[in-house]
C-alpha cells in the first residue's frame, strides 16, 4: 500500500524484499492501524451511536487517491454524507514516540505544480542574435517568481516556491528550441491559491512575450491545504488525552510544509488529521531519518495507540448531542 521508489538501507529482519521499493512513509502502518480500529469497533458494534466508514486509501503518494475516492462516493458509502472525518499519519523523526501532534486550522500546506516550457528558436552559440534563446528566459522566470512571492503576498501568510528541475539543450554551444522547468508552490492559506496561480501565469507569459517567445504552463492536479476544523480538533485532542494522558498530545506551533491528500476529505466535511510520532523509544527524534529517507524507521509498537484512538474517535461520537 503506497510503497516509494526508494532502496531500503536498514538492517532489520523485516525490510523490503523488493529492491528499489520500500514503505518509506509508513502507509503500511496506516492500513494496519485502521484495520485494528475496524476490528475493535466490530467487536463493540452494538455500542456505536453512528455509522462508521473506513477509508482504506491507495495512491497517497502523488496520485491523488483521496480525491478519486471522494469523487467515487466514499463520503456517501453509508448513505447520507458523513458528518466528520478523522485520520492520522506516522512520522519517523521530529516527533516523540507515541505522542500525537496537531493544531486547529492549517495543519499542512497545499501544493500546486506548474510544468513550464519556454519556446524559442534554436541556433548556434556563436550567433545568439540569430536565435531566440529560451535558456536565459527560463532562468529569468525562476528568479522572478521569488520576487513575486515576497512582493505580491503578505509575509505573515507565507508561500514557498521551489524549482527542483530545469532542463534545456544537448551541448554547450547549441541554443535549444525549448527550455523547461518544474515549479512547486506551497500554500498555507486556501485564499491565496487562485491569486497565486493567476499571478505566476501572468508573470511567466509577460517575461516570455518581452523576449519574443511563448511559454506553455501545465498545472498538475492540486493538493489542497489541509485544514483541521476547530471543534473536531478539540474533540480529537480530548479523546487522546483521556486515553493516554496530557503528555500524549502536543499542540503544534506551526503547520507542516508537506502536503497531504486527506485534504480532499477535509475540504468536503469537518474533521481533524493527527500526526503520530513513530521513532523508536528513547531516540533523539530530531536526528533520526525523516519519512521518505532510505533509513526511515517506523516503530510498529505505536500501532496500538493508532488503532485505539481511531476506534475511540468513532465510538464516542454522537452527532445527536
Explained architecture:
The protein is an alpha+beta fold and 321 residues long. Helix content is 29%, strand content 21%. The chain has seven helices and twelve strands. The protein has helices spanning 27-43, 65-71, 134-152, 193-210, 230-244, 263-266, 303-316; strands at residues 85-91, 100-102, 105-108, 110-119, 123-124, 159-168, 174-175, 178-187, 214-219, 226-228, 249-251, 271-277. The strands form four sheets. Strands 1-12-2-11 form a four-stranded mixed beta sheet. Helix 3 (134-152) runs antiparallel to helix 4. The mean pLDDT is 94.
Strand content: 15-25%
H/E element string?
Answer: HHEEEEEHEEEHEEHEHEH
**CATH class bucket of the largest domain:** Alpha Beta
Examine the secondary-structure arrangement and name the CATH architecture of the largest domain.
3-Layer(aba) Sandwich
Secondary-structure blueprint of this entry?
Blueprint: H1 27-43, H2 65-71, E1 85-91, E2 100-102, E3 105-108, E4 110-119, E5 123-124, H3 134-152, E6 159-168, E7 174-175, E8 178-187, H4 193-210, E9 214-219, E10 226-228, H5 230-244, E11 249-251, H6 263-266, E12 271-277, H7 303-316
Parallel strand pairs: 1-12, 2-11
Antiparallel strand pairs: 2-12, 3-10, 4-8, 4-9, 5-7, 6-8
What labels describe this entry?
321 residues; alpha+beta; Aminopeptidase; Alpha-Beta Plaits; 2 domains; 4-stranded mixed sheet; 4-stranded antiparallel sheet; 7 helices; 29% helix; 21% strand; elongated
Amino acid at each position: 500500500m503506497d510503497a516509494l521508489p526508494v532502496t531500503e538501507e536498514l538492517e532489520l529482519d523485516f525490510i523490503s524484499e523488493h529492491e528499489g521499493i520500500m514503505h518509506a512513509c509508513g502507509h503500511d502502518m496506516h492500513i494496519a492501524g485502521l484495520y485494528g480500529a475496524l476490528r475493535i469497533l466490530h467487536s463493540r458494534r452494538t455500542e456505536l451511536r453512528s455509522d462508521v466508514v473506513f477509508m482504506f486509501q491507495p495512491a497517497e503518494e502523488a496520485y491523488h487517491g483521496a480525491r478519486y475516492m471522494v469523487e467515487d462516493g466514499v463520503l456517501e458509502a453509508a448513505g447520507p454524507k458523513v458528518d466528520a472525518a478523522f485520520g492520522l499519519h506516522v512520522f519517523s523523526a521530529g516527533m516523540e514516540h507515541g505522542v500525537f501532534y496537531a493544531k486547529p486550522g492549517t495543519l499542512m500546506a497545499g501544493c500546486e505544480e506548474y510544468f513550464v516550457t519556454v519556446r524559442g528558436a534554436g541556433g548556434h552559440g556563436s550567433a545568439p542574435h540569430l536565435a531566440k534563446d529560451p535558456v536565459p528566459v527560463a532562468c529569468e522566470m525562476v528568479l522572478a517568481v521569488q520576487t513575486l512571492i515576497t512582493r505580491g503576498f503578505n509575509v505573515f501568510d507565507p508561500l514557498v516556491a521551489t524549482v527542483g528541475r530545469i532542463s534545456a539543450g544537448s551541448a554547450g554551444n547549441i541554443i535549444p528550441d525549448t527550455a523547461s522547468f518544474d515549479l512547486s508552490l506551497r500554500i498555507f492559506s486556501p485564499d491565496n491559491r487562485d491569486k497565486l496561480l493567476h499571478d505566476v501565469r501572468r508573470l511567466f507569459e509577460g517575461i516570455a512575450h518581452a523576449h519574443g517567445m511563448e511559454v506553455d504552463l501545465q498545472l498538475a492536479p492540486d493538493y489542497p491545504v489541509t485544514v483541521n476544523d476547530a471543534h473536531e480538533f478539540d474533540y480529537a485532542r480530548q479523546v487522546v488525552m483521556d486515553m493516554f494522558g496530557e503528555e500524549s498530545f502536543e499542540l503544534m506551533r506551526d503547520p507542516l510544509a508537506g502536503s497531504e491528500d486527506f485534504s480532499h476529505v477535509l475540504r468536503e466535511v469537518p474533521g481533524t488529521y493527527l500526526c503520530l510520532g513513530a521513532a523508536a523509544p528513547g531516540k533523539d527524534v530530531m536526528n533520526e531519518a525523516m519519512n521518505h529517507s532510505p533509513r526511515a524507521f517506523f516503530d510498529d509498537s505505536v500501532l496500538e495507540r493508532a488503532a485505539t484512538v481511531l476506534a475511540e474517535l468513532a465510538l464516542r461520537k454522537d452527532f445527536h448531542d
